[in-house]
Each structure stands twice: as C-alpha cells, then as structure tokens.
Amino acid sequence: MDYSNPILVKSKQFALLCVQIYKELTQEHREYVLSKQLLRSGTSIGANVREAVRGLSKADFYARLNIALKEASETEYWLEILSESGYLEQAQFTQAHTACNELIRLLVSITKTQKTGT
Description:
Layout: H1 6-28, H2 33-53, H3 58-84, H4 90-116
Helix pairs in contact: 1-2, 1-4, 2-3, 3-4
C-alpha cells in the first residue's frame, strides 16, 4: 500500500475500525443486521478508493471515488442509527463518526478537484 497517500491510509484504517465495531456488536450485543450494513459500507469505502487509485482512466478514478463517497455517506447513516438505538457507546460513535466525516471531507475535496480539472 502507498503509505504516502492519505486517502488510502485513512480509508483502510476506517475499514479496520468498522470490522472491530462489527465484531463487538455481533459478539457482545448479538446484533447482526445493522452491524452487517455498517461492515459492508464501511469497508467498501477503502475498496473503492483502492480501485480508483488503480483505475484505467480519469473517468474511472472519478467514478470510483464518487462511489466511495456514497458509501461513506451511507456508513455515516448506519453509525447514527447504531448510536441512536443504543448499540454504540458515545465514545465509540464519536471516534467512528469523526473518522467517517474526515473521509467524507477528503473525498468531497478530491472529487471537486477532479470535476473542475484543477
């Protein structure tokens, strides 16, 4: 992995955080439905970012990052649902939500730059 690329590093770290939360929710709370949604969308962000970086064209790069952005928005939603339904502790939610919002900001910035061509 390219450790000099912040979006690659941060999206992978976030995916690992989602895996950790999923394991805890399934093992300690026996919650399988919402946690699976979080796992799916949270790990998909990094997978799409990696595909974007290895894309064949600028259009492919842009399309994959937009998918990653949509997955990040969906992940934010699942984090909110898990928190508001009492499955996530406040500290856990804050850590994951902060990391998710950082990814969203980075992805928005990159996709805006790509759209404008600057």
